[in-house]
Amino acid sequence: MDRLDILKEKVKEILPEVDFVIGYSKGFDILHPSPYFVSEERQIRNLIWDEFCINNFANYLPPPKRVPNGLFKQDEKIGLVVKGCDSRSIIQLLQEEIIFRDTFIILGMPCEMKIDLKKLREKIDIDYIQSFNVSGDKAEVKTLLEKKTINLDEILYDKCLYCKYPNPLIYDYLIGDKVNPRSREGFYKDVDEFEMISNEEKISCWEKEFDRCIRCYACREACPNCYCQYQCIAQTRRPHWISQSTETIDKKFFQMFRAFHNAGRCTDCGECDRVCPVGIPISKIMKKLTKEVLRLFNYEAGVDEKLIPPLMTYKREEDNIG
Amino acid sequence: MIKKIPLNKVKNLLDDLSGDYKVFAPVKNGRSIIFDEYRSDKEVNLEKFSVTSIKEALFPSHEAMIKYDYKKDPSDLSKTSLSLKSEVNFDKTVIFGVHPCDARGFFTFDKVYAGNGYRDVYYKTKRDATAIVAITCANPLATCFCTTVGGSPADSEGTDVLLTKVDEFYYAESYSEKGELLLKNSNFSSPQGGVDNEQVLKIKEEAVQKLDKNFSTEGIENKLLKIFSDSDYWKNATSKCLSCGICTYVCPTCYCFNITDEGVMGRGERIRSWDSCMFPLFTLEASGHNPRARKFERYRNRINHKFSYLVIRNNIIGCVGCGRCIRHCPVSLDIREVVKGVID
Ligand code: SF4
Ligand code: SF4
Ligand code: SF4
Ligand code: SF4
Ligand code: SF4
Fold first, then answer.
1. What's the mean pLDDT in B60-85?
2. Is residue A175 located within the same domain as residue A232?
3. What is the domain extent for residue A289?
4. ipTM above 0.85, yes or no
5. pLDDT at residue A70, as a whole number
6. How many domains does one find in chain A?
7. Is A40 in the same domain as A174?
8. Distances (CA, A) of B10 to B46, B52, B98, B101, B334
9. Ligand 2 site residues, Cβ closer than 6 angstroms
10. Å from B330 to nearest chain A CA?
């Protein structure tokens, strides 16, 4: 049975136990599936699962963000479709004790790959997309204006190219067979390269990137770990640490402290990067942090619920910090 | 007046114009096309749809309203003097290469910031000093719905010059004195005979035909009021929303701002910066009460504001159908579907 069919059956089975299940359905075109809240059986047939179903639903779990009201309801139980990488966000949130395991059911989806629309856009004008078909390690892409065959390796999200955890690390039900992990070797290549350039070049690079930030906070709102909402210091007046202006320096400052607030917590899910409307490569900043956390604490966020995240605890003598 | 300009002369034109005007155009910035001030070293892209709208030109994402400076009197420290300065921008501006929907977007601003009631000097000054050059959208996107809300991909309303691409040329039609003045630039030449005109017309008509009407806006303002209290409808339609600022910030008609004092040691600026009704902070009161604490209430406000309140108060639909809020929404929330759901 195809993974989607198994999913649909499972959703039908658990629906009586929960208020709703979050999955994916068709969006305005084939490249943009949309989160879909199933509360009635007749909706199940609209569920989809393909290489564009990307949203990390763990983001809907923290109380301040919980749906459908945006207010936490103690007695509401939900189900959610969770990919391998998303499961790490859930583990992270459980470690932070901001969410509680008995308030949601995880439908774990082993996941082969997802297509990075920002990479795809560099290859073909996806605004006029008509069809996208995968065969082997290539994709046949057709738009109103042209037709192209593209190597999948060139258009997968980085996190998928080097996916170490394609199978959910935490779940109530596993939907279909597990898939093979890929090697992590090379995941930090872009960060390694960036480290080589001079500090001046680094600064001017990020100044160029953040020049076009529109300060929409989508990176923050899409991040499962950013659940402070308006208490985020990007907006508080007391303390008044940052101006509301859109000067590059303020926008850069915002992203830098958002990154630091995610140190040791970020799971490289890439949502912040994906949602940025102006294509700022935020992942690169986040990856630098996960790389450092790995080096200093030999720790990967969201992999083992029993571990205490290094920045949530204290050691008199750190092994790798002198 | 109709003139024409070869595609490869557009850069010359922009360089010329930026001598006399502040010029905004869609430029490549990193991986994106955004509207920004033109400079000769920037790469202009008139083919793709820009992420940001042109509102930035007349309604900057932040601008200083007042500069303030508190000074202590060195001979008597109990005395403080305050100096205030307010500057209003007068630069003559050309906004170049916009979509016709973007140009219409300013109609909403005009009603609210330059209408019969309140007159916003920061906006109005810039508006009066600005000329708009739009381009016929020969290939509308799947997310475009301008014809549904009263516009068209070949709409000349709100523009001073409309360009239409025919082969290796842009044909330029002017619709105002400001437009005529722009067409005097030597990069434009006069087309020969009537044949060209026909081609321009044909391209415009074809563009219009490429778009279907999504819904009828007839009576929408009252239908929305009727369904206001149907929380279930709004919850179902919007539960996936993330309460970010994308839809409002990329929208050519969203005009809300916040006012804050930004300074250190008694010296600084009172700025206004974009705000979004999708943020919980937008309506948070000092008491802690929030009349729109839940996201369905916030999204409902966005729809009602555009399709009901503005229609009732100002006789204008506050949406020009540019589709940006659909295209760039991280959860692909489709405003058309939500409005359609109200009508059905
Ligand atoms: S999502 Fe992008 S544009 Fe929006 S605030 Fe974050 S970095 Fe800036
Ligand atoms: S910072 Fe970005 S990559 Fe890290 S957890 Fe948050 S959304 Fe995911
Ligand atoms: S950036 Fe920091 S303060 Fe802001 S929401 Fe994220 S964790 Fe909270
Ligand atoms: S862009 Fe989408 S997710 Fe963000 S506030 Fe608007 S509707 Fe919600
Ligand atoms: S509401 Fe959406 S479609 Fe309408 S003008 Fe604003 S961004 Fe464009």
1. 94
2. no
3. 188-322
4. yes
5. 55
6. 3
7. yes
8. 10, 21, 14, 22, 35
9. A 222-225, 262, 266-272, 286
10. 5
